[in-house]
Design a protein that fits this description.
The complex is a heterodimer of chains A (367) and B (306). Chain A is α/β, with parallel strands linked by helices. Chain A has 15 helices and 5 strands. In chain A, helix 8 runs parallel beside helix 11. Chain A starts with a helix and ends with a helix. The model of chain A has no long low-confidence stretch (mean pLDDT 83). Chain B contains 11 helices and 14 strands. Chain B is elongated and about 75 Å long. The two termini of chain B are 41 Å apart. The model of chain B has no long low-confidence stretch (mean pLDDT 89). Chains A and B meet through helix 1 and helix 9 of A and helix 2 and helix 3 of B.
């Protein structure tokens, strides 16, 4: 068995048998995502804002509007179609419902005997990434239109709903969250690499390894491989929960997602080595990972968009590597609005990686 | 005649302002157990670590298996076995996993079964290393030094902190290494260990080697006399003792009397004549020679124990 393989397996075994490490890297993000996902996807008392585009301008159309307005869940806004679609793309609206011209005629012809032809389409624009909203709206609209059909006792139905999808800039909280939690988990996985390293140095395990002919690159390589394997497990778990539990569609660009997961993991492992370069004791390593971890977590726009931050804080967030990993994963996984183009994410993460590697190479001590 | 596995001439190493090793010279002969004896902080570990390729010497010539430690550290590491003073183990691996892991680092490997059997770790092969007793951990750490079938083994304080039974078991292991033709260089601060195990000993203190040789040489060089020892007899006057044949000096220590003499049989004969005439019997009669402890005391002016 090659030394690299043996050491990687030994690292994975040690990791799997260390309950604390297992909890923080695997269970913690899952608990996090379930907890926050549930809180944010509930949203029970918020109304859905729907643009009411009336292209018929008839009393019949006004009557239909009144029916919809009775639904307490919906808040209707009258807008022309162009304005409504623009507003929806901006994220100001949850959906757009279009009542086409000819609606009054269709209703009237249904009243007369032998109403003919295909049913008239009401168009509903929704955003597929907002799966909960979309399902709710589509259900409400379908049932109201169905009721309308029955009231008209039209056979065949006079009205139908044509659903159209539109990509909005506003991600639902859960689809914003899933890539964020993955980014957070990768960050923790990486910087927590510092703790076993410092432990192994304190307990002279690194020194003992140094007394064997094992090359140092093999030692570092096995640590990175072990953490990449865990990163793969984290990614699959978090994506699976996003898809299965919260119905977030995360089937964006899979290859790019994998690439950024790997780059993110390696960058934060390098940051872990930087911490291990300066922490002399295990306690110091624990403290330093916390000191690095929390600002990264809360000032990186991974839990809320940077646009919500005050100006001065946004400057800090702009420097954080986690901002770019979160941004890249959001773009590649759920097609979120870019904070910067993917190329910039790549460059910034690559830059952090290079700097961390240089610092570790200069200051890391084996004994 | 094979070359000496370790040759050291004027080795030096300073840590900041502390001169840890201050010009030491010695060699380890092929197939011998060589002991570096001295108190904690004497520079023993630094000396060994320079030879193991863990610490870079400041000066001097250090050759291991004929190779210069400064230029051939990785070649040397393949052929030596190392046990560090503090057992460094992966706490979450089992005994056999750990031995397998360390085997994978070397081009030349001893089969796992043989290592486990030799070190008597069979019962514990599937136990996590952190659940092992001190003695078992120490045996495991010695086992890791043997996975590459080394020509030369370095053992740094191998029995520190072990109970007498575990110490005895480890001594047997070390003697076994010698029987297998390996050379052993060990450090210790136990006199009895050095005396029982080592073919040759170097006494080290404050970064310097004060003297070296076999136990008999070290003692014989400075103590020609031996001591006749017995429990103190109240009726026996000091002047009569001092006048006994061969006695050069008399000492009382912890309820025993010591008669220092160059001629043990004559002194004992004379002592027994006197006691018989007084109608008493000397209890606990034995002949003691000087020990390494005495050598150390004379070399440094203080006892090794503290």
């Amino acid at each position: 068995m090659s030394a690299l393989r043996a050491l990687t397996i030994a690292n994975i075994r040690s990791f799997l048998r260390d309950r604390a490490a297992l909890f923080w890297t695997l269970a913690f993000p899952i608990v996090f995502i379930l907890l926050f996902g549930t809180i944010f996807s509930g949203g029970g008392d918020t109304k859905l804002t729907v643009a009411w585009v009336d292209q018929d301008a008839s009393p019949a159309a006004a009557q239909l509007r009144a029916t919809f307005a009775q639904v307490s869940l919906l808040e209707l806004k009258d807008e022309p179609l162009d304005d409504a679609l623009t507003a929806m793309k901006r994220g100001d609206l949850d959906a757009v419902l279009v009542v086409p011209s000819g609606y009054a005629d269709a209703i009237a012809s249904a009243g007369s005997a032998g109403g003919s032809g295909s049913p008239l389409s009401l168009t509903l624009y929704t955003d597929p990434s907002q799966s909960n909203t979309t399902q709710t709206l589509s259900g409400v609209v379908q049932s109201l239109v169905g009721a309308q059909n029955q009231a008209l006792s039209g056979q065949p139905p006079v009205l139908r709903v044509a659903e159209k999808t539109i990509q909005t800039e506003q991600l639902s909280s859960v689809s914003y969250f899933v890539p964020s939690i993955l980014a957070m988990a990768l960050m923790q996985l990486g910087i927590f690499a510092a703790i076993p390293l410092v432990q192994q140095r304190e307990k002279l395990i690194l020194k003992r390894l140094n007394a064997t002919p094992l090359p140092r690159w093999t030692l570092v390589g096995s640590n990175v491989l072990m953490r990449l394997a865990i990163a793969a497990v984290q990614t699959v778990l978090i994506m699976a929960i996003g898809i299965v539990v919260f119905g977030v569609s995360v089937a964006g660009n899979l290859a790019a997602t994998v690439g950024f997961v790997a780059l993110g993991a390696v960058t934060f492992i390098a940051l872990g080595y930087v911490i291990a370069s300066f922490a002399r004791t295990e306690e110091a390593a624990n403290g330093m990972t916390s000191i690095v971890q929390f600002p990264l977590m809360f000032l990186s726009g991974i839990f809320f968009p940077l646009a919500f931050m005050p100006e001065w804080l946004r400057g800090v967030a702009t420097a954080m590597p986690l901002t770019y990993l979160g941004d890249a994963l959001r773009q590649t996984m759920v097609g979120g609005t870019p904070f910067v183009p993917l190329g910039v994410d790549l460059l910034v993460l690559g830059g952090w990686l290079a700097v961390c590697l240089a610092i570790s190479a200069r200051f890391f001590r084996w004994q | 005649m094979p070359a000496n596995p370790v040759e050291v001439t004027d080795a030096r190493k300073a840590f900041g302002r502390v001169q840890a090793v201050d010009g030491v010279s010695f060699h380890v002969g092929p197939g011998e157990i060589f002991g570096l004896l001295g108190p904690n902080g004497a520079g023993k570990t630094t000396t060994v670590e320079m030879l193991e390729g863990l610490t870079r010497p400041d000066g001097g010539e250090l050759r291991v298996l004929g190779l210069d430690v400064r230029h051939h550290a990785s070649e040397i590491k393949k052929r030596i076995g190392v046990q560090l003073q503090t057992a460094a183990l992966y706490p979450h691996l089992t005994v056999s996993e750990l031995i397998d892991l360390f085997s994978s680092f070397y081009p030349r490997r001893v089969p796992l079964e043989r290592v486990i059997e030799e070190l008597d770790l069979g019962e514990k092969r599937d136990a996590l290393t952190r659940t092992l007793s001190g003695g078992q951990q120490q045996r495991l750490s010695v086992a890791l030094a043997l996975v590459n079938d080394p020509e030369l083994v370095f053992l740094d304080e191998p029995t520190t902190g072990l109970d007498p039974a575990a110490r005895r078991a480890l001594w047997e292991l070390i003697e076994g290494m010698k029987r297998q033709g390996r050379s052993v260089m060990m450090t210790t601060h136990y006199m009895d260990e050095a005396e029982a195990l080592c073919d040759r000993i170097a006494i080290m203190d404050h970064g310097k080697i004060l003297d070296h040789g076999t136990v008999n040489e070290l003692i014989g060089r400075r103590f020609h006399e031996r001591a006749v020892q017995f429990e103190q007899l109240p009726g026996l006057e000091e002047t009569r003792l001092a006048a006994l044949t061969g006695v050069s000096s008399v000492k009382h220590e912890d309820g025993t009397t010591l008669l220092f003499t160059a001629d043990v049989p004559a002194t004992i004969g004379a002592l027994l004549e006197v006691t018989e005439s007084l109608g008493v019997e000397p209890h606990g009669l034995l002949v003691r020679r000087a020990t390494l402890e005495d050598v150390f005391l004379q070399l440094t002016g203080r006892a090794l124990r503290d």
